[in-house]
Amino acid sequence: EIGMGLTGFGVFFLFFGMILFFDKALLAIGNVLFVAGLSFVIGLERTFRFFFQKHKMKATGFFLGGVLIVLTGWPLIGMILEIYGFFLLFRGFFPVVVGFIRRVPVLGYLLNLPGISSLVDKVGESNNMV
C-alpha cells in the first residue's frame, strides 16, 4: 500500500509540476516519489532488473538521465527525455492498458471514435513484451 501511495503522489506531483509551467521543485519531488514508489511496489531487486535489462539500457538512460537533468535544474529538457524514456521502457504494457481502457464504458466509447481509434490501434499493436 505504501508503494502505491508513493507512486500515486509521484504521478500527482509530476502532473502538477507540468501544469505549473515545469516547476522544478514539484517535478523533482514527483520523480523521487515515483521511483521510490515503484521500488516499493515491485521490490528493489526487481526494479533494478527491470531498468537494467540489456535491451532496455537506452530507455533507462533516457529516463534516469531525464530525472537527473530535472534534479539539476533543467525541467523542460529533463521531462522531454523522461517522457521519451518512459515510453520506451513501458511500451510493452501499452497493449494491455489499451485493452483494459476499451472495456471501460465511457472511455471505451471515446477510444473507438474515428480519429482516435486509428491512433489507439497503433499504440495498442506493439509486439514488444516486457
From TrEMBL:
The chain crosses the membrane at residues 5-22, 28-48, 60-77. GO terms for biological process: endoplasmic reticulum to Golgi vesicle-mediated transport; retrograde transport, endosome to Golgi. GO terms for cellular component: cytosol; endoplasmic reticulum; Golgi membrane. The keyword Transmembrane helix applies. It is found in: Golgi apparatus membrane. Its main location: Golgi. It is a multi-pass membrane protein. It comes from the Eukaryota. Keywords: Golgi apparatus, Membrane, Transmembrane, Transmembrane helix. The keyword Membrane applies. May be involved in fusion of ER-derived transport vesicles with the Golgi complex. Belongs to the GOT1 family. This is GOT1B protein. The lineage of its organism: Eukaryota, Metazoa, Chordata, Craniata, Vertebrata.
